[in-house]
Amino acid sequence: MPKQPEIMVYQFRVVLLNISPLIWRRLLVRSDTTIDEFHHILQISFGWLDDHLHQFLIHAKRYGQSRSGGVAFTDDPREIKLADFGLRVSEKFLYEYDFHDHWQHLIRVEAILPSQPGKTYPRCIGGKRCAPPEDCGGPRRFLELRRQHSPFSLLQRVAEILADEESDRMAELREMSCWLLIDRFDRCMVNRRLKQQFVVTDRT
Description:
This protein folds into two domains: about 10-130 and about 185-200, Roll (Structural Genomics Hypothetical 15.5 Kd Protein In mrcA-pckA Intergenic Region, Chain A); about 140-180, no CATH class. The chain has a seven-stranded antiparallel beta sheet. Strands 7-9 form a two-stranded antiparallel ribbon. β1 (about 10-15) and β2 (about 25-30) form a beta hairpin. The relative contact order is 0.20. The chain starts with 7 loop residues before the first strand and ends with a strand. The protein contains five helices and nine strands. It is α+β, with helices and mostly antiparallel strands.
């Protein structure tokens, strides 16, 4: 029987491009993870809702989920594993989500590590800031909205709403709460969601 390839762990740093200050994640992902699974890992890690098309650009070739009447890819992402690409330390590739808002993520291999018995993968080990709200218009529009929703202007608007006894602005308050928390990143919540969906514990 042929020997099974050794499972390694990629340490990725994923940066959302054209945004300042940086929005990024650091992830530990097994080498036997499929491209389709990696897409879902990224969606959870950034808090995206998976409502839009996506694609990877790896070694000058595009990978993703083909859609009837839409984008078509030659390979099934459920059958292609990260190990198949022979990734090396410092190598980079792209992940694009939402072809309208054009969210591009630069993914860099920081390290290739041996898997550790008892450790759960995938796992997020670092990151900064929430991802932009879905359908907000892309990087440039997000930065404009971020300036418009400065902490001072948000608190000022909350005070106005609270002072108006007849106002019913719950929808507006919910939207504002998103911008108040835009610099917050909850790594523990991301890891809970990753564990719920993947639950892969290395026992080698």
